[in-house]
Design brief:
acyltransferase; 14 helices; globular; ArgJ_beta_C
Length: 474
């Protein structure tokens, strides 16, 4: 299904509303699945690859960080590249990406919970069960290499070995991610032929990161990439990332791929716990259509060469600072995936407060964001708050309905379990404005007086979603 990547850092810095208006006009001017800027091949320049599709708006939460250019190459020690290697069924959008680290990077991975896990997922799990570090991540679009049996798994091993040989690494230093059509093996010959050119293009520049982010997309209309700089223990540290995703998006995780990089110094056990926490607060809190993919993968690499103090305890101030920054990057990417949902006209952000704990709040938020009826009502610009109440109620989290409070943006719809009179036209106009600008619909829910709070993100459900997925392989 869908994926995404990045464009120029200049596009990302455009004010949010103007960016959306500009992007909306580009959608209107071109069919969703036909959007492209230029044809590229393994002889292309990095700049051409990086500008194939526009950049997604990035919705970073506020915090003690500054957004910087560079994506996955913003952190010290990382390089990236992307090119067209002939893996896609049609078109010449870049389809092969590589991210490398100059040193052994502490590695963490979070993967799909789907029992029919793709060959690259099985491979990465087996590698990270043994190894604590990695040096490279190779990503292909076009074929998911899922449900392909032993032959598909052997393809992954051969591709990892080929990258390792060219980079003079061990095979276990190379991790693999794939996206595309389930049941199709990687076009291995085309991939292997493209590897020398891909490696020659490796660069620590923003263009390298952008080209890689474009190459991992599938039905994405925009590429998703972001990087931030913050202080950890008084030392400047950078965290960057790229992701893809647009359809088959649902918690645990989604049809999404991601690579996150940092130059912070952190031990393996702490880093893996931090990455899992960040994924639970971001990629596991987005939904487009209720389908969980076979290929979902997030690989996070920490080079440790920023000069920061080593983080060896989750209870340290430095760990808290890095966790907050990691959460912000992943949430920014996750929200861009939901914003770019197939056929979507707006992002839906559900915020829940008053729960007993964070897990309960997150569960209620996810339930509402996942509701097809809520999503359809938003697309129809219908302020049908009863569907929101219903979605909160079947989340599996006990609460007193007499404490339920619901607001749509600034418009209070229910309080103390009682429906309130409200301006229905104003509420409908709020939804219309979000749809017209590809903006954000905010749903605020309170279920009690607890300290637990959480968020989830989704998008509206339009007619175009069915059109896109009815002809996905044809």
């Amino acid at each position: 299904m869908a994926a995404c990547s990045l464009h120029s850092s200049i596009s990302i810095r455009v004010p949010q509303l103007n960016h959306k208006k500009l992007f909306k006009s580009s959608i209107n001017a071109s069919p969703r699945r036909g959007l492209r800027v230029c044809a590229v091949s393994n002889n292309t320049t990095m700049l051409e690859a990086a500008t194939y599709i526009p950049a997604a708006p990035i919705f970073l939460p506020e915090g003690p960080w500054e957004q910087v250019p560079g994506g996955v190459t913003a952190a010290k020690g990382f390089k990236a590249a992307g090119l067209y290697g002939g893996l896609r069924a049609k078109g010449e959008k870049p389809d092969l990406a590589l991210v490398t680290c100059d040193v052994d990077a502490v590695a963490a991975g979070v993967f799909t919970m789907n029992v029919v896990a793709a060959a690259p997922v099985l491979y990465c799990r087996s590698v990270l069960d043994i190894a604590k570090t990695a040096r490279a991540v190779l990503i292909n679009a076009g074929q998911a290499n899922a449900a392909t049996g032993d032959l598909g798994y052997q393809d992954v091993i051969e591709c990892a070995a080929a990258v390792a040989k060219l980079l003079q690494l061990r095979s276990a230093d190379v991790l693999i991610e794939s996206t595309g059509v389930i049941g199709q093996r990687i076009k291995k010959d085309a991939l292997l032929k493209s590897l020398p050119s891909l490696i020659r293009l490796l660069s620590s520049t923003t263009e390298g990161a952008d080209a890689a982010a474009v190459a991992i997309t599938t039905t994405d209309l925009v590429c998703k990439s972001v990087a931030v700089e913050t202080e950890v223990g008084g030392t400047k540290v950078r965290v960057g990332g790229m992701a893809k995703g647009s359809g088959m998006i649902h918690p645990n995780m989604a049809t999404m791929l991601g690579v996150v990089t940092t130059d912070a110094l952190v031990t393996s056990d702490v880093w893996r716990k931090m990455v899992k926490t960040a994924v639970n607060r971001s990629f596991n809190q987005i939904t487009v259509d209720g389908d969980s993919s076979t290929n979902d993968t997030v690989i996070a690499l920490a080079s440790g060469i920023s000069g920061s103090t080593a983080i060896s305890s989750l209870d340290s101030l430095e760990a808290t600072q890095l966790q907050a920054c990691l959460d912000a990057v992943m949430q920014g990417l996750a929200k861009s995936i939901a914003w770019d949902g197939e056929g979507a006209t707006c992002l839906i952000e559900v915020s829940v407060t008053g729960a007993k704990n964070e897990a309960d709040a997150a569960k209620v938020a996810r339930s509402v964001a996942s509701s097809s009826l809520v999503k359809a009502a938003v697309y129809g610009r219908d302020p049908n708050w009863g569907r929101i109440a219903c979605g909160a109620g079947y989340a599996g989290v006990p609460f007193s309905q007499n404490e339920l409070r619901i607001a749509l943006g600034d418009i209070l719809l229910m309080d103390g379990g009682q429906p309130l009179p409200f301006d229905r036209n104003a509420a409908s106009d709020y939804l219309k404005e979000a749809g017209e600008t590809h903006g954000t619909v905010e749903i605020h829910i309170s279920i009690g007086n607890g300290q637990g709070r959480g968020q989830a993100w989704g998008c509206d459900l339009s007619y175009d979603y069915v059109k896109i997925n009815a002809e996905y392989t044809t």
